[in-house]
Amino acid sequence: MENSNSRRNAMKKIVGGAATVAVAGVVASRIDAADLGMGADLKGKINHSVCKWCYDSIPLDDLCKSAKTIGLESIELLKPEEFATVKKYGLTCAMVSSTSEDWGIVKGWNKKEHHDGLEKWHQYLIDETAKAGFTNLICFSGNRDKDIDDEQGMKNCAEGLKRILSYAESKKVVLVMELLNSKVDHKDYMCDHTNWGVELCKMIDADNFKLLYDIYHMQIMEGDVIRTIKENQKYIAHYHTGGVPGRHEIDKTQELYYPAIMEAIVDTGFKGFVAQEFIPARTDKIASLKQGVEICDV
């Protein structure tokens, strides 16, 4: 196996690409951080990530290079076929996607008729997540309808998720249900208040089932963000950002003061990831991403 100096020397001979080196008999593309302009002076209290879908106009390789330069550790909401790209750049995927043509935000665990298909799909994703060395896999409650109320939907979610959680635990994978707003973006989504999600966590009572607290969504639904975070941190595995209103940059153009929210998260002892999930409104999307990370780096 080549040492770091020889690998760095090889890298410097290649412009705009990665050296291909043999590692334990496997050919893998490796990128040296120094050649990507690393050295962002971040404080280290927050583990920073970014959601890929907000930057879909940027090729994943280019987004990875920019992420490394900014100091991000993760690009998330990736599908298994995208794992190799982020790993090539020394990045992780702090939250694996679970959406597909068949399953996602609308069709989730709150209906028993979905359980067989969701169990099979999530077992595949658990295997891929574990194989890649990642930890968190997102999941969704699904939407309300006239035939199911919130109480029954919660019971159905608990029943369905318990079918897969032991398997996930054996693979050291955590299933994380996202809190989304049903007022603006996801009409009729059931897991739309922190209290509902927390009660589901209590009903399931498993260390590898947690919540994704999306600050943007929960500001729209209930506000009181800092107190809610402090009171419910034990049930939260992950955070997403976004400017309110509009879901754009998280600077002074919107109503939340993210430095105070990040300080509250740090004060709880949280060791997970905070991911930027705003949709850049400016032409220079990477500059907006960098600004968001700097605002959250308390």
Protein model, in words:
The chain has 2 domains: 1-30, no CATH class; 39-296, TIM Barrel (Alpha-Beta Barrel), CATH 3.20.20.150. It has 298 residues and is of the alpha/beta class. The protein contains 10 helices and 9 strands. Helix 4 runs parallel beside helix 5 (150-170). The longest helix has 21 residues, at 150-170. The model is unreliable at 1-39 (pLDDT under 50).
Provide the CATH topology of the largest domain: TIM Barrel
Oligomerization state: single chain
- What is the CA–CA distance across the termini? 39 Å
Low-confidence spans? 1-39
CATH architectural type of the largest domain? Alpha-Beta Barrel
Kindly name the structural category: alpha/beta
Q: Give the neighbour order of strands across the main sheet.
A: 4-3-9-8-7-6-5
Number of strands: 9
* H/E topology pattern: HEEEHEHHEHEHEHHEHEH
Report Rg: 20 Å
What's the number of domains?
A: 2
User: How confident overall, as mean pLDDT?
Assistant: 90
Mind telling me the CATH superfamily name of the largest domain?
Answer: Divalent-metal-dependent TIM barrel enzymes
Quick one: biggest sheet?
7 strands, parallel
Shape: globular
Range of helix content:
25-40%
- Provide the CATH top-level class of the largest domain: Alpha Beta
What fraction strand? 5-15%
Q: Please, how many helices? A: 10
